[in-house]
C-alpha cells in the first residue's frame, strides 16, 4: 500500500464511521441529529461562518444583524440535515417512498416531454434536498443523468457515486461533460445541471447574481440554443415535517443562433430563475460557498 492510498484510507475512515451511524438510526432521528450537529458545527468553522455572513449581508442589505445571525444558524442546520439525507439516500428505494415523502407541483411538464420522447436539461441549484432527484426521477420512469464533480478521495467518491446511481440514474463527470451531455440528450435522456456554483474565469461568463457579479457556466445555453433543447427548472424544498415539495417549472426553449450575446442573455435568465428559487427558501441554500469573486467584480468595473 503506497502512501497516497494509506492517506485516503485514513481520511475516509471517520466518514464511513459517520455513514454507519447515519444508516443505523431511524430516518427522523437521523435527520434531527443532523440538524443539531449542523447547528453545533458552525462554532468550529469560523471561516465558513464569516463567508456566510458576508454573503447574506450583501445579498440582503435590508436585513438586520439579528436576521442574518438567525439565518446563519438555519443554514448550518440545513447543511447538517443535508449531510444525513445524502448518506441515507439509498434508504429511498420504491415508488411508495416517493408517495410517502414527496409532493409535486408541475409534474405534467416532465410527463409531456417524456411523451414527446425528447431529451431535456433539468436546471437546479444547491437548494433544499437537491440530491433527491437522483432517486425520484428514475423511480418515476424518467431516464436521467447528473453532472457532478468527482471527490478527491476515491473511496468517498465511489460511495457518493453509488448513492447517486442507486435508483438507476447515471453520473457524468463534469470535467468530461459537454460531449457526454450531448450524447445523453440525443438518447432522449434528461440531464441535470446545477448553475449556482463558482466556475473559473476561463470556463465561465459574468452574470448578475443577487445584485453582484459572479461567474456562471454557459454550457446549458450553448447547447440549448444550438439544438433548441428544452430547459426545465426543478427545485426540491424540504418542509418542516422533513418531507419534500418538488417544484417543476414549465420548459424553456431558447430560439436563435448561439451568439455571444444570446448565450449571455440566456445564462442570465437561468441565473435569475435559480436566484428566485433560493429567495423562496434562503435558509436552504449553500451560503458558505465563495460564490462571488473579486475577479468577476473587476471584469464588470
UniProtKB/TrEMBL annotation:
InterPro entries: LipA_acyltrans. GO terms for molecular function: acyltransferase activity. Keywords: Acyltransferase, Cell inner membrane, Cell membrane, Membrane, Transferase. Its main location: membrane. Pfam families: Lip_A_acyltrans. Transmembrane segments: none annotated. It is found in: Cell inner membrane. GO terms for cellular component: plasma membrane. One of its GO terms (biological process) is glycolipid biosynthetic process. This is Lipid A biosynthesis acyltransferase. The lineage of its organism: Bacteria, Pseudomonadati, Thermodesulfobacteriota, Desulfuromonadia, Desulfuromonadales.
